[in-house]
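Try this one yourself first.
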């Protein structure tokens, strides 16, 4: 009887493994780091990764767990390690093999911790900036090559470079893949602790920083993609969710990224004492929507007219945008 019960439990756990997963290892500069082992007690686990307890996706992009998975709090000091990582070097995250979801973006974020260690720091209190992003690499939304498809092809790994300009310090690095094969989108974030050395002096700007939760809305165009609808057959653009890329003004990928700050936000200079905040930009007349603003969609009830010269463009049934 006992053997039968154990077998049933094993079958359930194997099915979970087959359906979803997360980051199991990291590598950087020739060093190999084993991640946390979910479904196991944290007792005795020693790793740079923040603990996470299930292979399940996060389906609410505003959930507290969106920062570092469920629940992402650190191991006790002594068990929670921090990898030393050189600015300018690349760091690779290894998802379980095979990663089952080849349709969606890949994103990598950093958040600096106050004080001398990230151990014990609540990831929900940090401000994150995006150092890497890739979405639809080629083809159409329905049948094209997605960044997560490339991740699967590359031995279920994604490699991001720590920008050389990032200041030294204690950071959480947050690798994320988002799977779009069903709605709501499935978010798979995972965090690890790193100390960046040999870095630069460009702090992220205010416009580049977000909190998690806070960085995404469930209505973000990149989270409400219908892969199976009519529009996806011909659509070749995909808007990656989250803030503008650190140090950007543009993206390295094929995705349109706003090159101007969102209305009402102002990039803060990184050096010198801040001058008094400039007066807010004049608000658009009622009933008009600024560039990149939402102007339509199935559950949308706001204004639908765009500020000249932009036109309201249907990106999918759930989201139209002034472009
Ligand atoms: C592929 O990933 C596995 C971990 O999933 C790792 O052990 C192996 O070394 C990787 N292979 C290559 C060629 O990098
Ligand atoms: Cu899954």
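Now uncover the answer:
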């Amino acid at each position: 009887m006992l053997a039968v019960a154990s077998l049933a439990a094993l079958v359930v756990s194997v099915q979970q493994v087959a359906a979803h997963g997360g980051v199991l290892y990291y590598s950087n500069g020739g060093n190999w780091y084993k991640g946390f082992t979910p479904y196991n007690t944290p007792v005795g686990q020693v790793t740079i990764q923040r603990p996470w307890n299930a292979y399940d996706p996060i389906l609410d992009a505003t959930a507290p767990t969106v920062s570092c998975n469920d629940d992402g709090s650190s191991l006790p000091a002594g068990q929670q390690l921090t990898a030393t990582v050189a600015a300018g070097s690349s760091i690779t995250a290894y998802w379980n093999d095979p990663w089952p979801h080849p349709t969606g973006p890949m994103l990598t974020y950093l958040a600096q911790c106050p004080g001398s260690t990230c151990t014990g720091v609540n990831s929900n209190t940090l401000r994150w900036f995006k150092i890497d992003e890739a979405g639809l690499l080629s083809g159409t939304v329905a049948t094209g090559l997605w960044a997560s498809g490339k991740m699967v092809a590359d031995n279920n790994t994604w490699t991001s470079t720590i920008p050389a300009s990032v200041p030294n310090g204690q950071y959480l690095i947050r690798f994320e893949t988002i799977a779009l094969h069903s709605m709501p989108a499935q978010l798979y974030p995972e965090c690890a602790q790193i100390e960046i050395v040999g870095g630069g002096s460009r702090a992220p700007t205010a416009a580049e920083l977000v909190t998690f939760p806070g960085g995404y809305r469930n209505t973000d165009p990149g989270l409400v993609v219908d892969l199976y609808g009519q529009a996806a057959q011909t659509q070749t653009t995909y808007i990656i969710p989250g803030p503008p890329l650190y140090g950007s003004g543009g993206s390295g990928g094929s995705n349109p990224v706003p090159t101007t700050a969102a209305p009402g936000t102002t990039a803060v200079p990184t050096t010198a004492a801040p001058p008094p905040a400039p007066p807010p930009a004049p608000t658009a007349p009622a009933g008009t929507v600024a560039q990149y603003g939402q102007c339509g969609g199935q559950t949308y009830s706001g204004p639908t007219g765009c500020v000249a010269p932009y036109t309201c463009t249907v990106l999918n049934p759930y989201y139209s945008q002034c472009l």
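Discussion: The longest strand covers residues 186-197. The longest helix spans residues 2-19.
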